[in-house]
Write a structure and sequence with these properties.
The structure is a single chain. 26% of the residues lie in helices and 25% in strands. The chain is α+β, with helices and mostly antiparallel strands. The strands form six sheets. It has a five-stranded antiparallel sheet, with helices on one face. β3 and β4 form a beta hairpin. α4 crosses α5. Bound molecules: zinc ion (ZN).
Length: 267
Amino acid sequence: MSDKERGYDKYLKRKGAKLESRINEGVPFCWMCSAQSGNRAKEHIFPLWLQRELGAEKETWTPTHTSVFGDILDSRGPHPTTALLAGEICEACNGGWMNALEGRFRKVMFPRCPTISEADGRVIAHWFAKTAIVINSAQNYRLAFPREARHAAQQGVPPGVGVFLGQMPNAPHRLNFIQVQGNVFGFSRPGMGEMAQELLKRAYCCVIRIDEVVAAVVYAPPGPWAWPLVEMTQLHPWRGEEISWESLPPISDVTEPLMLYAEHPDL
Ligand SMILES: [Zn+2]
């Protein structure tokens, strides 16, 4: 295991930015498994089949990380969707379980049945959780998922992760994502313990949009005990009833689900 510090964290420190709470782990050989050697693959954050399916290969991106005060800490690009890559994923993950998950997700999503069954819901939630973890590991943002959560994504949605769906028809781009941590509403009461404050700071949300489907992946272990404040339909953990795509609540902007509310028993 390499204990190399994430290049992005080093870069922020050089710029004099104060690093907020994050998972302090070195850069591993593979973000998604415990392999320490072998070949690395270039994992596309949005797989090529999906980019082609949506005609989104040439959409341009400027991934930007802003501080809580709105200052731009880092901005990359613009580059096309095809250049959004995660370099530190091994070939065994990329060509193995991740590839199999892509195949299952594609079958469920293109074309979609009018309703989401529990089995299909499991695939959709798994894909969005995996994609959020890859985005968080690879993009210019602090690391939010610890090793055990990342590795658990091989089997399914990791413990502590909730997945919520909404819809956003007629958006200007076909693909989008945005991530935030610590954006929790309503729990800043005085005297709150340090432990509780730390938990709130670590609640993480990644919003991913694919065409008109918007998913919010919330990581609030051991819960999930945090939810988007805006109305969305809970896909994972499964609520026991089929979900119709049409019934998904409308979302007007991908930043909308980033504000969370929390109901942690210790808070
Ligand atoms: Zn791997």
